[in-house]
Design brief:
It is built from eight helices and ten strands. The protein is α/β, with parallel strands linked by helices. The radius of gyration is 17 Å and the shape is globular. The protein starts with a strand and ends in a 5-residue tail after the last strand.
Length: 222
């Protein structure tokens, strides 16, 4: 799924303070993009705006040339649930649900858990934690919890995956493992991935980098 940002501006507070200053770029369908920049450069704000979790103050976001600003609330919610996946620095697993139940949470919104159960089990196998299917989050390591969170984000076969510092709380081994899993999903399922990372080595694993400086794209996206 192609994503296009046209003149994206975002302001907060009173008086208004602009955080994003006219962002323009195109992410082609199936690309793996690393969004980089120092803390406070606007990376997370941009990711939330592109993903429809937040609205821009000005400018527009397009998916496959479709203007998201004209979507009603129902279409936005359906798009988020069925077409996108989200992975964050913290896994946000529900402690009272076991592994497979956490993975199937997106499917519960449409009462389609059984439809996606096989997919969930396949992801657990790919991620090397199929033996943990009935464990609860408190019985897993940090790396295992993050792999469950990624499986949850992918269970509905999203066309776009947004990842905000998914390796931020992991050691080197698990960070490498998570990045390799994301790269595998991108290559095999052609999922468009937009990844925020502070790690230059992880950024180099992406096909291209978009670097933000003070809310602006620093030169041409590379």
């Amino acid at each position: 799924m192609k994503i296009e940002a046209k003149g994206i501006r975002k302001s907060f507070g009173q008086p208004q303070q602009e955080v994003l200053h006219g962002i323009d770029f195109i992410i082609q369908s199936g690309e793996f993009i690393a969004l980089t920049g120092k803390s406070g450069s606007g990376k997370s704000t941009l990711l939330y705006t592109l993903s429809t979790l937040d609205k821009p103050t000005a400018g527009k976001v397009f998916y496959d040339d479709e203007d998201t600003s004209i979507w009603d609330t129902q279409k936005v919610h359906r798009f988020r649930n069925q077409k996108t996946g989200f992975v964050f620095q913290f896994h946000y697993l529900l402690p009272e649900l076991n592994v497979i139940e956490n993975i199937l949470l997106p499917a519960m919104k449409t009462q389609s858990q059984e439809t996606y159960r096989k997919r969930g089990m396949e992801l657990l196998d790919i991620f090397g934690i199929a033996d943990k299917v009935n464990r609860f989050p408190g019985q897993l390591s940090g790396g295992e919890q993050q792999r469950v969170a990624i499986a949850r984000a992918l269970v509905m076969k999203p066309r776009v995956l947004f990842a905000d510092e998914p390796t931020g709380n992991l050691d080197t081994y698990n960070g490498d493992l998570v990045m390799n899993l994301l790269k595998k999903i991108n290559q095999e399922e052609k999922t468009t991935i937009l990844l925020i990372t502070h790690d230059p080595d992880f950024a180099k694993l992406a096909q291209r980098q978009i670097h933000l400086v003070d809310g602006r794209v620093n030169g041409t996206a590379i």
